[in-house]
Amino acid sequence: MASSVLSVFETYQKARVAFVQSVADLATRAQNIEIMQNAGVMQLLRPLLLDNVPSIQQSSALALGRLANYSDDLAEAVVGNEILPQLVYSLSEQNRFYKKAAAFVLRAVAKHSPELAQAVVDSGALESLVVCLEEFDPSVKEAAAWALGYIAGHTGELAQAVVDAGAVPLLVLCVQEPEISLKRIAASALSDIAKHSPELAQAVVDASAVTYLAALITHSDTKLKRQVCMGLAQIAKHSVDLAEVVVEAEIFPKILTCLKDTDGYVQKNASTCIREVAKHTPELAKLIVNSGGAAALVEYVSETKGHARLPGIMALGFIAAFSETLALAVVVSKGVTPLKDALITEPEDHIKAAAAWALGQVGRHSPDHARALAENEVLRVLLANYMHEANSADLRTKAKRALKAILKKCTHLPALEPLLKEAPVEIQKYILEQFAKTLPHDQQARRTFVQSGGLQLVCQLAEDADGKLAEHIKGIQDCYPPEIVEYYSPKYADQLMKKIDEFTPNVG
User: Fold this and answer.
1) Is a pLDDT exceeding 60 seen at residue 492?
2) pLDDT tens, 331-350?
3) Is the peptide bond prior to 367 cis by the omega test (within 30 degrees of 0)?
4) Alpha-carbon gap, residue 49 to 64, rounded angstroms
5) How many helices (H) and strands (E) does the chain have?
6) In whole angstroms, what is the distance from residue 6 CA to residue 8 CA?
7) At a CB cut-off of 8 Å and minimum separation 6, what does 190 contact?
8) Cα 381 to chain center, whole Å?
9) What is the pLDDT of residues 378-431, one digit of tens each?
10) Is the peptide bond before 253 cis (omega within 30 degrees of 0)?
């Protein structure tokens, strides 16, 4: 009699086990999700989270995590069915396998949107997840760190909630654990916290995170290096003080080796970190250059394409912006050629705009800097980008600004003269200004300007010129005898023809 009664319970238990395992398996395939949702899978899984059989609890949580991971609608269904409080309660009560599965559900819900992440926070999950960071089992720590990272990644307010829950010191301890995957997830979570504001980045710094992250720059694991470089970039970007903390952890010249890494994401994240350090002060930019950073960045920009190229381009621009010496370091490292190449060959306007801006920063300091760009025919490329109407407004604006900045310093007249014929009036005035400044002091240049047809072109422009343009043209014409100017003016040919018409030959 007893055995027949117990067999009923055994059958029921086997059926529950089979059900949750099948649902967890079916949830791995996208085509099954809608069918399961329509069949009311959420309502059926919810009571099984509190089942008296641990394996059923775990499989039930795993199935819910996979469903919630699939879409924000299903994640909202998890919230709507009041499943989160049960998970949070169980996080502190159950075994490590269940904790791992429960943290997975919380992460799957939180990842979709700030609102869903807030729902996870409102359910009281943060305190339980932080406690999980102290678990002995690395996989539980990893699951908790992952969930906390997703929550913190959305907004500064959510990241602050994670900090207030006491997660940061424990995440820093996780970075020091021997398990590589745990190091990766903890580094990623710290990066997600630091990215929002100087205050949050400071909270990460105060927990000594930078020291441990910087030590991992040369680690052999590629995915870990990606997270480490990005985490340091997210800290350095906010202020001079935070950037100095990152630099003082002796990331240079170690991080330059990451620019040559076989992994594109490591390269990009390393160049992003260098850019975030370089942008703050001349001293930090100089430190990068003295570490061999200018040459390393030039090589990186030469060898990469597309979005990966952008932080390298901007890093060179920031370095060059600060002083003549730093800009010269970019020129000497042969940085002009790859920046010009980006301006010509990159398909996306925002990358071209960054290259135009960087070239402007290199060339705006002195005649020598401007000449380096002029001899590389950068001026013509900038002009072409400014005049091409299909280009974005931002690209055209940056090309024009760069062109003006370089022209104001450029005294290399052979490079300027060809632009006169192609440039619109608003650019011609800057070119003519340089001729007006240079020609009075250079006899050979005055002769060459006449022989090349430059004076004739200027005299033609004088017909319709006004304002600054007319002023610069007069300055150029004043460098020559009046009869030479008259000879090259368009009216002179008409006057000659008129004299021929009026002349009566003396026929004997």
Assistant:
1) yes
2) 999 999 999 999 999 999 99
3) no
4) 10
5) 35, 0
6) 5
7) 168, 171, 172, 175, 204, 209, 213, 231
8) 24
9) 989 998 898 888 889 999 999 999 998 998 888 877 888 788 777 787 787 788
10) yes
